[in-house]
Design brief:
It is built from four helices and nine strands, in the order βαββαβββαββαβ. It is an alpha+beta fold. Helix 1 crosses helix 2.
Length: 163
């Protein structure tokens, strides 16, 4: 049993789950009393989600509803990077939330340092915007996954291709 096992650490939002979270948010703001007769809306496009509401307070409520729907769909709000609220047309406030795509180089180095500090017999390599962790012992790989999960990083990541 000398074969190498490995897994990848990536950051990629599931587009279907994002679309579902946006649709559920649209349904909720259509039914909620505090959003009635207002100009609140949420739209998903290729690179971002656009939130529009009457004022900053309602914009914050809309963002909370959207993040709640994300969590219910199994996605983390850390996937999103919000812009500053800005004045939109027709006396509204607008905010965009862009999706995190890939793991930044400095964030990848934080993960590599955490895994190296464990002193396990695994190799970590940065491959573009993802990391590959490989080793002979699957227990070491499981320990790496648990350590990274408990690392409390301020960015989103998933584990894929565990073999």
């Amino acid at each position: 049993m000398a074969s190498e096992s490995s897994f990848d650490i990536v950051c990629d939002a599931d587009r279907e789950e994002l679309r579902n979270a946006v649709q559920h948010t649209q349904k909720e703001i259509a039914n909620r009393f505090d959003f009635k007769n207002g100009k609140s809306s949420i739209e998903l496009d290729a690179e971002a989600v656009t939130l529009v509401s009457d004022d900053e307070f309602k914009l914050g409520q809309l963002r909370d509803v959207f993040e709640t729907k994300l969590i219910k769909r199994g996605l983390t709000p850390k996937l999103l990077t919000y812009s500053e609220p800005e004045a939109g047309g027709k006396l509204t406030m607008r905010q965009t939330a862009s999706f995190q795509k890939g793991i930044a180089q400095e964030d990848a180095k934080k993960i590599v340092k955490l895994i190296k500090d464990l002193k396990l017999k695994v190799q970590v390599s940065i491959q573009g915007e993802q990391l590959r962790v490989s080793g002979k012992d699957k227990d070491d790989l499981q320990a790496c996954i648990q350590a990274v999960k408990s690392g409390n990083f301020d960015f989103a990541f998933q584990f894929t291709n565990y073999r």
